[in-house]
């Protein structure tokens, strides 16, 4: 049975992926008018570089086209989410993938020591 937060997140991600069975997870997306609907998306850990580039360039339509299930793209267009809604969506997609957005699993310190002169 999972005991740590990371194990719980990983277990939740496996459950979510098992629900759809196609590699997508279901997460909420809030529209500009406050209406929230569930959409199927790739977990954030599976977003391709082209999707990240589109996100960084502010091209939300391309970003969502690359990460959402093709049947849910029109729902994204209808919801027309705000920047805040997109932020919450990205956090949920990250958690569904078993990781927290902006958190690195890598070491926080360099493995090499620095020689002082």
Please specify the SSE layout and strand pairing.
Elements (H helix, E strand, L loop, with lengths): L4 H16 L4 E6 L5 E6 L7 H8 L3 H8 L5 H7 L3 H14 L21
Antiparallel strand pairs: 1-2
Helix pairs in contact: 2-3
Outline of the structure:
It is built from 5 helices and 2 strands. The chain is mainly alpha-helical and 117 residues long. The chain has a two-stranded antiparallel sheet.
Largest beta sheet: strand ordering:
1-2
- Please provide the ordered H/E string of secondary-structure elements: HEEHHHH
Q: How many strands, which pairing sense, and closed or not: the largest β-sheet?
A: 2 strands, antiparallel
Rounded mean pLDDT score: 80
Q: What proportion of the residues form beta strands (DSSP E)?
A: 5-15%
Q: Count every beta strand, where a strand is a DSSP E run of 2 or more residues.
A: 2
Poorly predicted parts? 16-20, 104-108
Radius of gyration (Å): 17 Å
Helix content: 40-55%
Global geometry: globular
Q: What is the count of DSSP helices, taking H or I runs of 4+ residues?
A: 5
Instruction: Tell me the distance between the termini.
Output: 51 Å
What structural class is derived from the secondary structure elements?
mainly alpha
